[in-house]
Amino acid sequence: MTFKTTLGSLLLGAATIGFTMPAAADQLEDIKAAGKIVTATDMHYAPFDMLNNGTYEGMTKDLFDEVAKEIGVEPVYQDIPWTAELPGLEVGKFDIVIAPVTITPERLERYSFTPPIADATVALVKAAGNDEMTAPEDIAGKTVGVQQGTAQFRQLQAYGETLGGVDVKEYGTTDEAYADLATGRLDAVAGSLPNLTYLVKNRPETFAKFEPAQFGEPTYFAWVLRREEESETLLAAIEDAMAKMTEDGRVEAIQTKWLGSYTELPATAPGQ
Amino acid sequence: MDWDVLRQYAPILLRGFGITILAWAFGTVFGMALGLVISLAQRYGARPVRWVLQAYIEVVRGTPFLVQLFVLYYGGPLVGLRLDALPAGLVGLTIYGSPYFAEIFRSGFDAVPPGQAEAARAIGMAEPAIVRRILLPLGLVSALPALVNFSIILTKETVILSVITVPELMYQVQRMSTETFRYLEANLVLALFFWGLVELISRGGRRLETRITRHLLERPGHG
Amino acid sequence: MFSIQAFLDSFGPLLWAARYTLLVSGLGIALGLVLGALVCAAALSRWRAARFVAALWVSFLRGVPLLVQLLLMYYLLPVIGINVPAIVAAVVTVGICASAYISEIWRGAIGALPPGQSEAAVAVGMNNRDLWTRIILPQAVVMSLPALVNELILLVKASSLVSLVGIMEVTRASQAQAATTFRPLEVYIAAACIYLLINLCLAGLGRYLEHRMAV
């Protein structure tokens, strides 16, 4: 939404307060009729979603631009804080959440997932110059930060138990955990590999990855749709688009651009 | 509604609410005390003192609590100040509230008619006694509704402590909603707990208000 | 270490986002002042029903966090079929919430006036209208100015919550900037400078009015 259209809708205020249409049978048809697909993402989750001088960019945007092109509609990008994304999706404020969401069994019960867009397996970073810890098992007995309520949090906790105890500290976003790692209150931060790789690439003087960085079960990031009949055709259209993009090398090019390497991903959300 | 989720999370929600109340009470009491000291120092202090305090008021009042807390907690270690989450939160709330309280006290003191202090001086009352027996009691009467108003605002600022991992109500509610996706229940918990707390505070405030303004009503015709 | 460069670089995007902070808090304040006056009038009215509605309004809006009010307005109203654009939801919620605090400030100021004044005015035969416009309101408005400025400054800062409905104001823009540069401290201090600038203007205006209108 631009400032001008915002002003416009404010002036029209009353006029634009509409009543929602009764739910139609097919989301894909609605989107095609409107010519646009309304998305929501949290635009501070580098390298997937970020704002560079006010312009939205990142791996999610590159991928979704292509998906929307395949479906034949214009994507509308909105920055919505993570806490409001799934509630907003449920009441139909957006068609799809394109923030990278880790696929978990609990979430699969409530939402539909698109094919994975990236590897989300949990990994670890430490302060640069900390030679005391190198491999993931060295976090035994240490204090490790992680984002509250994430799949990575669960895995860290489970892993900590196998190591005989890790002091896990939960943060609202990983940004605060990184900040506390920089102050020295934390010994390490757990998160998904793509996020941590990007962090270390940008602040090599402050942060360093573990060797190997990853541990635990392989998991994936994907986009989220409402779990209902009318969304099924949209899901199928996205699956087709992504299969085509994987085949003609677009996915590989985008992954290499943002992550520095290519990992082949499953064609549908595992477990769905 | 999913009552099972609420029942399951009730212990941590209540513990979080306890910490919310603790943080609110601490921030209100110490913020008010600091604010009172500031407003008295501004009234009686030398010019440079007044100038420094005015700058303190404008800077602390003019910047968001989130930013202040962030600088204190994550920036403090850069200059050797390392506080744990809860102490940092309590100190932060106290500092954050103090300029607002100071301004409220200032307006309360300003509302005391100057003739009252002059009369006291004329009958030979010492300056500290004037503050204690004239300025404070009369100033408090007119400042009370605004003091209650701001301490209510302070209840809501405690949720920001969740950013530095203080396990208060917001922190626990977020944990519940990210683990269970029960957003409606989560917001209901926030609404009810805060509403209850605020009702208690404003009732207490009103009771205090009628008590300390009683003398105004009992002697009509004065003033 | 603190990077001056990162601090200075933050100002571009943050100042751009300040448009929304100004828009939402400016209109929110305007709405809050108007509604606040009405609610205050209702709270002091002779009619029991009006007083009851005002008390309920203040109690609910002060009691329930703004965050929850905003979610109700934007994400819950659609459930019953009312769909409000994000910016309208933001301004209306901020304004309504502000009205509760503002009306309490005014009610407090009016209540703190010595009752002898009104009695004296009535005794010399002043009518109700003159009593309010010449005795009560001029004094109450001046007396309430510091508390009102406090409240308006809080409102400017509370406007950061509207990012929840997808509006990119200063706080949200600084979070985004911090997440791309991984330099939160520098970015947040820059954001603090912008809020400080806006609020210094408000505080200055308040002091100017206080001196101008001093009785």
Rg over CA atoms of chain B: 21 Å
Greatest interface (CB-CB under 8 A), with counts per chain: B-C, 51 and 51 residues
Share of residues in helices of chain B: over 70%
What is the tally of beta strands of chain C? 1
Low-confidence stretches of chain C: none
Oligomer class:
heterotrimer
The major beta sheet of chain B can be summarized as: none
The CATH class of the domain at 19-168 in chain C, by name, is: Mainly Alpha
Number of strands of chain B: 0
Structural class of chain B: mainly alpha
Task: Give the topology string of chain C: H per helix, E per strand.
Answer: HHHEHHHHH
Give the structure's gist in a few sentences.
The complex is a heterotrimer of chains A (272), B (223) and C (215). Helix content of chain A is 40%, strand content 24%. Chain A is α/β, with parallel strands linked by helices.
Keywords for this entry:
heterotrimer, A: 272 residues, D-Maltodextrin-Binding Protein, domain 2, 2 domains, 6-stranded mixed sheet, 10 helices, 14 strands, globular, B: mainly alpha, MetI-like fold, 9 helices
Describe the structure.
Chain C: One of its GO terms (cellular component) is ATP-binding cassette (ABC) transporter complex. Chain C: Residues 18-206 form the ABC transmembrane type-1 domain. Chain C: One of its GO terms (molecular function) is transmembrane transporter activity. Chain C: It holds the Pfam family BPD_transp_1. Chain C: InterPro entries: AA_ABC_transptr_permease_3TM, ArtM/GltK/GlnP/TcyL/YhdX-like, MetI-like, MetI-like_sf. The complex is a heterotrimer of chains A (272), B (223) and C (215). Chain A has 272 residues and is of the alpha/beta class. In chain A, 40% of the residues lie in helices and 24% in strands. In chain A, α3 packs across α9 and α3 (59-71) runs antiparallel to α10. The longest helix of chain A has 16 residues, at 232-247. Residues 14-22 of chain A have low confidence and may be disordered. By secondary structure, chain B is mostly helical. Chain B has one domain: MetI-like fold. In chain B, α1 (3-44) packs antiparallel against α7 (169-180) and α5 packs antiparallel against α6 (127-157). Chain C has a domain at 19-168: Orthogonal Bundle (MetI-like fold), CATH 1.10.3720.10. With 215 residues, chain C is mostly helical. Helix content of chain C is 81%, strand content 1%. The mean pLDDT of chain C is 90. Chains B and C meet through α2, α3, α4, α6 and α8 of B and α2, α3, α4, α5 and α6 of C. β1 of chain A pairs antiparallel with β1 of chain C, so a sheet runs across the interface.
